[in-house]
Input
Amino acid sequence: MLRVSRRTLAPRLLGLGAVVVGGAACGEPPTATPPRAPESPAAPSAPRYPTEDAAWGRYHSKRFQLSFPLPDGKAWRIDDHSRPALFALHEATASRVWVQATQEDELVNRQKCEARARDLGWVTSTKLTTVEDVTTIGPEAYDSRIWVALDAAKPGGAIEGHVYLFGAFIRRCLLVHVSTTVPSAKDEDVLSERLALARARIVRSLTIDPPRVTDDATVPRDKPDIRR
Output
């Protein structure tokens, strides 16, 4: 793309003005300016996740004994029963959340739990562009890797963002995957904001239930319950 600086452009504009004035003084009829075509309305931008606390709900999984927040809480469709992993879908933002906790036969670390996730098909085979890659402790005492990445090879120019957590604790793996999609690169600021919120307020805010001390112990349940 050719870029012209203002200093270069200004003398050209002044010269063009002199030509127009000189032509008018010689009696030449002014050139009619063609009417401008009406501008098409701008395509609506991709919706953002709400940032107000009141717009977020918190879902508790009795099966996996954990809970986590979701933006626009009541709009999510959640399946926590029919498949090995909990699955949640938010159609308005093309967002999906998968959560699974597995019991392993041997001591595990985050690398083994990531390999477990890949064996289960959690990580797309498409080459992803890494945005952030950190190791951390959490939730609780889990040894975890958080990986934020982009997939720009979607059909039609769409861009999909991913936030993964691969966590390990003794003989237990905690796997979390959040994905969200925007229609095109012009919505990259929306995608960036969604991924930041997904990392900070979904993945990092996931909590593990306290251990049960009896078989009939009550599991804490956060309100509101956004399951449908």
In short: The chain is about 20% helix and 30% strand.
